[in-house]
Input
Amino acid sequence: MVKDLMRERKKKLKDSTIPGPEEQNQTAGEDAKATILQKEVGLISGVCMIVGSMIGSGIFISPRAVLASTGAVGPCLCVWAASGVLSALGALCYAELGTMITKSGGEYYYLMEAYGRMVGFLFCWSSTIVMKPSSAAIIFLTFGEYAAAPFYPGCKPPLFLVKCLSAVGILLLLLVNGLSSRLARYLQNFFTAAKLLIIVVIVIAGIVLMLQGNTENLTNAFEGASPSIGNLGLAFYNGMWAYDGWNQLNFITEELKNPHRNLPLAIIIATPLVSICYILVNIAYFTAMTPTEMLQSPAVAVTFGDKALQPFAWTIPLFVALSTLGAANGGCITCSRLSYVAGREGHLPKIISYISPKQYTPTPALIFNAFLSVLYIIPTEISILINYFSFAQWTIYGLTALSLIILRFTRKDLERPVRVPVFIAVITVLMSAYLVMAPVLENAEIEYLYCFIFILSGLIFYFPFVHCKFSWTRSIMRPITMHLQLLMEVVGPEDAE
Ligand code: ARG
Output
């Protein structure tokens, strides 16, 4: 009965809305091309994708945490610079991997190629259940904090309000991305322009302050530094959070025009650009506030605005909120691509890779991610989330850099349009190992173990649902898929093509 209804509804949806591939491109225009992974992302869009994902919440919230963990201005700036270098090294490894394996989905295929399908599955499990929604939650919480900040000058806004605003942000982007991919792309460009504008304003204000002689915080910058090995690891977690996003273009490689040229070029342009912006912004912060003021500030960029940008200080929270929404929007786009390829490989419930045939948007993936993001914002605090996110994320970066080395031996046959010196991968692996181990060794919190156990717990699903494909798993999944498909009016990507 449900099956018949389903078939009928599906047929109706297809008849009424899904033309053949040629008509499809004419009638539905760009949206249709995007959902069936047509190659339409050029170099500029690629650079914007990386810059727009990297600059989000971190540069406006992390400076306080980096300073708290390092104890003085000098080491703090060194951590920011070193984080930029480390991101660039990681990104170079991804340039080789992304041009060697030109499939969308980021680390997913690289890990699968080097370590086998099980590791690929664990990556996709931990990414969709933990990493993507928790990173979205951090970004949205920052959005909430900054959206509320103008109404609470000089003090922290109530947590409940921040969380409500974060939830509103999640729903807003869900709506936009669910309604139209084109609208989401336009919005992304607008957000990227806004964030670059505010960065430039902060840097110029900093230069003016410096020319006026406000450099005392930058002299004797190493006095009072007290970083321990573990604290330095935590400082890096916060710095690297701000830089995170350099791998985002690898999630949409199949949509890149001429990936062999554009992927490495976009990476080489975007990563140093963001590093320079971040170092200049941090120096600007220190021209306007003392380290103590920074440590006490509820929102670093707002405090900077209050001190240096009067009477336009109100613009800062507005632009920071826009910047965070932009990074979250980029996350929505890449997250849906990962779900798409993982559904294609049978590693996620099929329904998550389905798309709406009317709007050509990956509605189930978007709803799933939004639902989990809301769950993550309820119990948590930003800094704690950042630590666990970074722990899991750097395990993955390390394994991916190691896969580059392994594939040099096991897949000599693969063409490598970009070949990075192997020491770059070795340094990335060693730094990742340090970043994963240091905070755990320094402060052996049980939560890191939970995090690890959680990643492994994906195996409970892997063996019955993916590896052995027992028939009972199909009889569980089929009706669920069918009902959800009816409810959301979506079809499998293969049906839409
Ligand atoms: N660097 C970004 C920020 O500062 C966060 C990027 C989150 N990572 C991601 N893969 N979306 O907000």
Residues 9-35 have pLDDT under 50 and may be disordered. The pocket of arginine is lined by residues 53-54, 56-58, 135, 139, 241-242, 244-245, 248, 327, 331 (CB under 6 Å). Residues 121 and 347 are 6 Å apart (CA to CA).
